[in-house]
UniProtKB/TrEMBL annotation:
Protein species of origin: Lentzea jiangxiensis
Keywords from the named record: Transferase
MF annotations from Gene Ontology: acyltransferase activity, transferring groups other than amino-acyl groups
Alphabetized PROSITE patterns for the sequence: GNAT (PS51186)
Gene3D superfamilies: 3.40.630.30, The crystal structure of the spermine/spermidine acetyltransferase from enterococcus faecali
Transmembrane intervals: none
Protein name: Diamine N-acetyltransferase
UniProt superkingdom: Bacteria
Key word Transferase present: yes
InterPro entries (UniProt xref): Acyl_CoA_acyltransferase, GNAT_dom, Sper_AcTfrase_N
Domain N-acetyltransferase: 5-155
Length: 156
């Protein structure tokens, strides 16, 4: 199945429905919740957080958050960093994750961005295979939390 998604700004009208989107409990150690993402965005304004709800039709199915055009420094990976990507537990395995990444990549390419970075916790159940399957490659670096840094070349 090829998921059809829309990236939607989060407002007071849809915030509760988006916060209710949760990953499978076994994935919680790999992906922070939407609510925690909001707190992280508020606590880290220097990361220039950009986030959107992911909708299929009228239903929120996921969430994505990036650091958008930041100067890398202590605690800041970038300039473009995929900070959070989550698909609700009941919506996984339907192509939403890939569709979200395709949409984000299209937005970044339209801005002339040459690369997108992300990170993930290594281990059983990690999203690393998903990211590598999309084309991300390890940079050989880890962040301050020990997460593996991955890079996607957007020039190809």
């Amino acid at each position: 199945m090829s998921a059809q998604i829309r990236l939607v700004e989060i407002t007071d009208a849809n915030r509760d429905a988006v916060v209710a989107v949760r990953v499978h409990p076994a994935q919680e150690r790999f992906v922070a919740s939407v609510e925690k993402s909001f707190r992280d965005a508020e606590d880290n304004p220097d990361a220039n957080p950009w986030f959107r709800a992911v909708y299929d039709g009228e239903e929120p199915v996921g969430f994505v958050m990036l650091s958008w055009d930041v100067t890398p420094g202590p605690g800041l990976v970038g300039p473009y960093f995929l900070w959070r990507l989550l698909v609700g537990a009941g919506h996984q395995g339907r192509g939403y994750g890939t569709a979200i990444l395709r949409e984000v990549v299209a937005l970044l390419r339209a801005e002339g961005v040459p690369e997108l970075l992300t990170s993930c916790v290594p281990g059983e159940g990690s999203p690393e295979p998903f990211y590598r399957g999309f084309g991300f490659v390890p940079t050989g670096e880890t962040d301050e939390d020990g997460e593996v840094i991955l890079r996607l070349d957007l020039r190809r």
